[in-house]
Amino acid sequence: MYGTKIGGTIFDRDEHRHTAADLLQYSNPDGLRVLLHATVGRILFRQTGAARPVAHGVVFHDAAGVRHRAYLNDGAKNEIVVCAGAVGSPQLLMLSGVGPRDHLESLGIEVVVDQPMVGQSMSDNPMNAIFVPSPTPVEVSLIQVVGITRFGSFIEGASGSNFASHYSQITRELRFGMFSAQVPT
C-alpha cells in the first residue's frame, strides 16, 4: 500500500537474535531428520483419492550426487515446506509439475497442477544507496522498510558503523563497508 511503513526484526526486545532454527526446541527430535548438503530436485504428489494433488515426498541428491526419495509419514501433522528462495521455489514447483501448462509441456514435464502464475512476474532487486555521514556515532539498526512509493519501490533505512568505509587505527588500513562507493585496490 502506497506510503505504508512496514518492518520487522529477528531480534527480540532483549536484543537476542532468533532464527527459524529456534523452532527446533519445540519439535520432537525423534521425528526429525536434518540432511546437510541435500538438494531437492522434485516434489512427489499423490493424485489418487483426493480432490487435488497432495505432496507426499521429495526426490533429492545427497552430497555425493546419489539420488534418494523421502516420504512423509501418514497423518495430518506432516508437511513439505518449500523454501528455495524467490527463484528456486518456483523452479522446484515447475520441475515438480506445478506451473503454466504450456511451459511445462514444452519441456516434457508432466503437469500436476496447471498454475499459470508460478514463476511469473519475477524481477531483480536492484538497490541505490545514499550514505549520510554522521559526525557522532549512531545506534546500529537492521535494514527496514520505511516507505513504499506510488511505483511500488521500497524505501529502506538503516544505521550503523559498517555501512561506509573507514580507517582502522588497529590494523592501519582502509576498511570498505557495504554501501561504500569505493573499491579496494
Tell me which oligomeric state these chains represent. Answer: single chain
Q: Could you give the count of β-strands? A: 9
Low-confidence stretches: 5-9, 181-185
**Number of alpha- plus pi-helical segments:** 2
Give the overall form. Answer: extended
Radius of gyration: 23 Å
Give me the strand/helix succession: EEEHEHEEEEE
Question: How far apart lie the N and C ends?
Answer: 43 Å
User: Percentage of helical residues?
Assistant: under 10%
Order of strands across the main sheet: 1-2-3
Query: Major sheet, described briefly?
Result: 3 strands, antiparallel
Going by helix content, strand content and strand pairing, the class is: mainly beta
* Strand-residue proportion: 15-25%
Average of per-residue pLDDT values: 77
Domain Glucose-methanol-choline oxidoreductase N-terminal: 85-99
GO molecular function: flavin adenine dinucleotide binding; oxidoreductase activity, acting on CH-OH group of donors
Protein name: GMC oxidoreductase
Protein architecture, described:
The chain has 185 residues and is mainly beta. The chain is 9% helix and 22% strand. The chain has two helices and nine strands. Strands 1-2-3 form a three-stranded antiparallel beta sheet. The two termini are 43 Å apart. Pfam families: GMC_oxred_N (PF00732).
